[in-house]
Specification:
351 residues, alpha/beta, Aspartate Aminotransferase, domain 1, Aspartate Aminotransferase, domain 2, globular, binds 4'-deoxy-4'-aminopyridoxal-5'-phosphate
Length: 351
């Protein structure tokens, strides 16, 4: 008999983008924000050292209150976790374990991993030819999970379509999970649908728009019933998923809305400029509502283009799935980063 459980042996873990330690790269491979977090974050965590001997507030009360205030919900409708990855994992356990779940075939590749871990029968609906989400296809089963905007395409489904999915799910007593990791870079979010739908769970993160990937803070917004279910899972796993530094940092960050808005605006400007330049050079690139661009870099396999960029000191992400093989996902960095990567892509792709 092996040491490992059948569960451990049966998993195919998620592969995260490279975090290089050996040399300096222009790092456009994991959708981090190129700007530092709000200066208020440093003030908030400075001097917390003495308090670290005590466990943190397991309910992350101040952070939940701050998020609630900014997002226009009540603190009881907010759940915080160790990165939105953990919140997603808890949601899979709370709402989908033992059920059949429908998701787009091209989406965040952690979903099938959580599905396997929690015994979810994971079924996919192909994106349309143009990489848009097939809402009608997703309505052929329940429950449904999707990222909006989607990753790695960067495309965005408007609120009317999410409302349709939420109404269909509710009519069939199912939760609709919408992963809004990138919604801060999109024209709108679905937050106001929360008042209409007690079955809608929005999962969001401080990693992208708030420049706090290194702190690991994510959250969910939903009805008190959904939030209670997430807490049941949390308290069956780890009562203190958010440490004191993370709670203080995220609270300071969420309350500095002007700073976040300014960083998001810079990223969006750099994104749209790079998009326009790539399109003008005849390169296929999808219209992004996120902090990354999905660029068609080859006829067949874009891996050599990724490697050539790496040799020039630029990291981007490549996925080997058949439908994604000829594309690269390029995180939006500073204006200078984007000039560098755009020049390199034009040269490598167009010759
Ligand atoms: N959802 C999507 C769609 C993502 O791309 C990511 C980032 N890899 C996450 C969730 C997780 O983000 P984090 O755990 O840093 O909050």
């Amino acid at each position: 008999m092996p040491y490992e459980s059948k569960l451990a042996l049966g998993l195919t873990p998620y592969t995260a983008g490279e975090q290089p330690k050996d040399r300096q790269f222009i790092k456009l491979n994991t959708n981090e924000n190129p700007y530092p977090p709000s200066p208020r974050v440093a003030q908030a965590i400075d001097g917390l050292c003495d308090s670290l001997r005590l466990y943190p507030d397991m309910e992350a009360t101040s952070l939940r209150e701050a998020i609630a205030r900014v997002m226009g919900v009540s603190p009881e409708e907010v759940f915080c976790g160790n990165g939105s990855d953990e919140v997603l994992a808890f949601a899979f356990a709370a709402f989908f374990a033992g059920k059949t779940l429908l998701a787009p075939d091209v989406t965040y590749s952690f979903y099938p991993v959580y599905a396997r871990l929690f015994g979810v029968d994971y079924r996919t609906v192909p994106l349309r030819e143009d990489f848009t989400v097939d809402t009608d296809g997703l309505m052929q089963g329940l429950p449904v999970a999707l990222a909006n905007p989607n990753a790695p395409t960067g495309l965005w489904l408007d609120k009317g379509e999410i409302r349709r999915l939420a109404a269909h799910s509710r009519a069939n007593d199912a939760v609709l999970l919408v992963d809004e990791a990138y919604a801060a870079f999109a024209p709108e979010t679905c937050c106001d649908l929360l008042t209409e739908f007690d079955n809608l769970l929005l999962v969001r993160t401080f990693s992208k728009s708030h420049s706090l990937a290194g702190m690991r803070v994510g959250y969910a917004l939903g009805s008190t019933r959904l939030i209670s279910a997430l807490r049941r899972i949390r308290d069956s796993f780890n009562s203190y998923p958010l440490d004191r530094l993370a709670q203080a940092a995220a609270t300071a960050s969420v309350l500095d809305g002007d700073y976040t808005a300014a960083c998001v605006a810079k990223v969006v400007t750099a994104r749209d400029k790079a998009y326009t330049r790539l399109r003008s050079a005849g390169i296929t690139v999808l219209e992004s509502a996120t902090n990354f661009l999905f660029v068609r870099a080859a006829q067949e396999d874009a891996a050599p283009v990724q490697q050539a960029l790496r040799e020039r000191g630029i990291l981007v992400r490549h996925f080997s799935a058949p439908r994604l093989k000829s594309w690269l996902r390029v995180t939006v960095g500073t204006a200078e980063d984007m000039d560098r990567v755009t020049d390199a892509l034009i040269e490598l792709i167009r010759g």
